[in-house]
Each structure stands twice: as C-alpha cells, then as structure tokens.
Amino acid sequence: MDLSIIVPLYNEEQNVAPCCEAVRESLSATALSYEIVLVDDGSKDGTFAAAAAIAEADAHVRVVRFRRNFGQTAAISAGIREAQGRVIVTMDGDLQNDPDDIPMLLEKLEEGYDIVVGWRHRRQDERMRVLISKIANRIITFVSGVPVKDLGCSLKAYRAELIKNIPLYSEMHRFIPVMTSMTGARLAEVKVRHHPRQFGQSKYGYSRIIKVMLDIVSIRFLVSFVRHPGLWSVGASLISLAVGVLFLGLGALEAVLEETADSVVMSTIGTLFVALSIVLFAWGLIGYLMVANTRNHPLTRLSIVSWNLVDRSALPQGSQHVR
Amino acid sequence: MSGEADSLVQSSVVRLAGSSLGPGSGAERGAADRLGTSAAVDLSVIIPVTDRYDDVETTYWSYKRQLEQSGLSFDMTYVLVGQRPALQSGLESLNARGEPIKVVTLADWFGEATAIAVGASRSSGKLILTLPAYLQIDPAEIPRFIGSRGGFDLIVAARDRSGDRWINRMQSKAFHWFVNRLLGSRYVDLGNSVRLFRREVIEEVKIYADQHRFLPLLVERHGFTVDEVVLRQAEADRRPRLYRMGVYVRRMLDIIVIYFLLKFTSKPFRFFGLIGLSIAAIGVVSALWLGIERVFGGVAVADRPLLVIAALLIVLGVQAIAMGLIGEIIIFTRSAGTADYWIEKTVKKDDEKSTPV
User: Fold this and answer.
1) Rounded distance, CA B310 to CA B332, Å?
2) Which of A229, A257, B32, B352 could bridge to A288 as Cys pair (CB 3.0-4.6 Å)?
C-alpha cells in the first residue's frame, strides 16, 4: 500500500464524514492505493458511530476506538501502529487542513526527504493563538537548532519505516520533526492551505505552553544523550570543578592574607561550584549506565535513506504548490 | 508482574481442600470438584489477610452464606500476607470439615495489592470479588452488591458512615479530601476492601504493594469504568480506630507515589524540571541580588546568610533537573514496544464485525 492517512478525532462528530469525503476526492485524482485510519480518541459525542458507519461502507477506511481520551500523541501512535502504507500522512480531523495538499507533500517526499511538514503560512485562527505559537516555534528552533516554522501543523508526511521507529509517548508528536531532524533525517517544509474551523470546538489550551517548553528541554537532552552519553554533563562538570577550585583557591589565599570576609564569600562560591560539578558528574555517569545497553536504540537508526517511495507516475502531473 | 508475584509465593503453597479430601458427603465432594478441576466458575472470591482480621469462622460462614444467596458458582482463596500460624490452623480446621477454600501464603510482607494479584492469578472466575478478612460491610449486603455491577468493569463498596464514630469519619474525610483534591477524583471510601471486577481488569492493570487502595484510580487510567456502591457498614467496623504514626506517614507517601504515577509516569521532566527550575531560579535571583548590592550598594556579602542559601538552592535545583532528565532517559529507553493507550475496538470492513481488542 502506498499511503496511510491517519486522522485523530476527538469530538468531531460533524467533521468525520466531510473529512473522509475530502480525502477521497483529493486522492481519486491519483492512482495511489491508500487507507484512512480514523482514531477516535475516546470522544463523548457520536464521533465513533459516524466513523464506524463510514468504515462499514468504505473499505479504505478503518477505525480505532480508544477506551477513553488518551491524547493526540497516543492517537497518532495507535494510527501509526495500525497503518500499512509505505508513506504515512497525519492530518487533523477538523477540516482545517486541506487534503488537496497531500499529493504535493508526497511529491516533495519523493524528492528525497524523510519528513515533509506543512507550514500554515496563512493561519486562520485567533490572533493571540497564532502569536503564541510563533514565539513557541522560535524558542524550539533556537533550542533544537532545527529550523521549523510551524510545528503545530498536523499535516505531515513521513516515510513509514522512519516514523514507526520513533518512540511516541506523552505529548511527543509535536516534536517528531525536531527529534528526527536532530538525528539526521532530511526535513522539508512546504506551504499548505489552512481553513477556518467550520464545526465543533477547538481543543487548544494555553496551559500547554510551559509543558511544551519543558518537553523541548528533555528532547534536546535526550537526543544529545543518546548520541554522546554523558559527554555534555561530564564536560559541564569539569568546567564547574575548575571554577570551584579556582574560587576555593582564592578563598584560601584570602584566608592567609587575613581578609576573612572575602574569604567566606569566595569559599562559599567555590563550594557551590564543586557541589555542582559532583551532581553533574553523577548525572552523566548514571545516564551513561542507562543508555549503555541501548546503543542500537531506534533513534540512532533513523537516518537510513530509501528512495522511490511513491510511484511517481501515480501522481497527477504538475500538482499545485501553494504560493 | 504476575510472574514476579508468583515467585514471591512461598514454595510450600498449602492447598488444603484438595489434600484432605476424604470420602465425604456429596455436597463436599461437589465443592471439592469445583475447586480441583478449576473449571471456570462465575466468581472467584479473594480474601487477602494482612494485619487486621477477625475470627476466621465468623467471617467465613457469614460470607459463604451470602455468596450462596447470590446464585453464582464461586471459589474462595485466602491469601495470607506474611506467616500467620494461628490463622493458618483456623483455615486448616475449616478445610478439615470439607470447606472448599484455597490458601496461598506470601512468605513475607508484600502488601495487600500483591496479595490480590497473586490470588487473581491463582483463581479462575470470570468475576473477582475481594473481601476483607474482617467484617467491614454488613455481609447481608453482598448479594445486592454483586447484583449492582451493571455494565461497570469495577465496582467498589462505600460504607454508609452515618452510624460510624466521628474519629473514623474524620480520618476518612481527611484522606479522601486530600486524594480527591490532588487527583481530581470523587471517591468517598477508597479504604474499602470490598470490590468486584472483571478478570480482564486485574490481568491488564498490574498492582502491587499497597496500591489496592488506589485500584479504582489505576483502573480508570486504563479507560475502564468504575462505580461506587453504598453499602451498610458492619457493626464491628464502627469501633474507633487510631493507627501508629508510621501508618499515616506511609499513607501520605502512597498518595504522593500514586499522584506521580498517574500524572507524570511518561513525562518525569515536567515534574522534576518545573520544581528544579523554580528552585534554581530563586537561587540565581538571590545570588544576582547579592551581587548587585555588593557592586552598586557597597553592602558587604560575607555576613549574609542569603549567600549560603542561594548557593544551596542552585545546587538543589540542578540536582532536581538532573533527576528529571534521568527519568526521561529511563522512559525513553523503555518506551519502545509499550503503549500508553488502550484500544476498545477497531472497525474494518473486511472483518464485518467490530472486534474488541
């Protein structure tokens, strides 16, 4: 199978049918074999019934129903496990993404990229939300060193073998591009269309900002740790030790010169840095112990390249790039 | 976990009914057959025995009479936590009279939740009912309790406390206020040992040590449905109870552990990172403040305790951050192959029907 489209759904009763219809329409222009995996993330409205009805009628569509709401990462993760296509596309079930962009993503992927992410360059959301999202993207770009303009866009295409290897838990889905790109996967960003919401409620909350910031710190750390276990913290530990010893030396010197007051200050600062260096060193060692037996962890195997994922002739000629 | 739990079980598992089966009456033989063949019964009753227990004879007979009222076929398993010779001889004497009970002894103190897990792995009922080894609810309520499961995966009993002593009520109130506040739940009697659940629940949700109290919360996390059913409190349960200080401390720790488990298992850095960053930030700000005053105000620093406090806070903060990141490594390196979601069913056209997973 060429293509699996994963659509996580949470309380999108009215959007399910139009969404599937739109995908079908966009892909009927191509000769690609595809499936749609609808993941109902424990919706409380009639989403599951609507989705199941579509699945009964259309052999392209499958539905996975969660026991309760487990969040978007879990939904995407379940969809990926279920998917059989060589290329996996994720998109929102709220019709804000446009399935007409999918052939374009595939074409880009086929140029030799591992991940193609959508960039909603004309977002149709509240201004405040767009602004906060932009700032968050800047910070993430800065911390990770991966230049992604729009991490929040759900419309993305991946090589299946790559995405199936990525550990997905907590709320990691947001960081898939960053994580894989940091390990050498080739990432492309293309402009995609974005529509205002027609039905239902947005599930956006501002409380996630701090969480996202904490998460990006751990991702940055994890990726560097998997590659060079202990390097970072042991390095910091040595610097800290040097600074600490320097201050302790100054403290001792001043004690000799009977500058008691200055001596106390210098010794305290020296002790601080020595203590820090011990903490950092222990941290590096323990971390090393933990990844020592997992050198073959999926993340280190992500940069494998394979070509010709999609039969080029199956794509419509000259599919439109959005400008 | 069940394998682990099994290894904790003392090698000399006593299986009383099977061994001393003589040419008894038909009823006894029938009962023993039920036990021996371990053909699936409707209901497996598990009675974990820890510190608190009443006279074996009293509880056994009052439970048995009521269980028979329910009209379900059942077997009973006592799981002794730690060695209890007196109790064991009581159970042996019951068995000598042909009562169909199974006894499993955990060699040491492994907690009530472990006992329940072990009991469940050694019984066969499609439904599992846990009962305390003492009278907590009026046994006459058991048939009604069993009947009130409805479509729920787990039901827990809640004692009607109206006749209870104020000291018991107060302790329970405080405990539940705290738990419900912290975990956003709405339980009124988590300390109740009377629970009824489908076998699938205990096979999927692994519990150990003292987690039995939080079983409803852990079960809800998997997406199972839970309900509380109010039952009449047993007369004997209304005695005023006060525990040693250590018990309250342990209970407090249990709550914190469960809180962490439910909220941060897959994202430890959100917990430790936030704590560590705040502590370190306070330390850095204090240190900066000291520096500014020293440079621009000419205030001497050496005799100010804030200097030491700032240094301490920075180290503490970095340590907490380090803990969180180590937690992240643990989760990350173990995340492959584990799922933190549970699927109810999948629908495909080729299957025709929905298949529960």
Assistant:
1) 33
2) A229
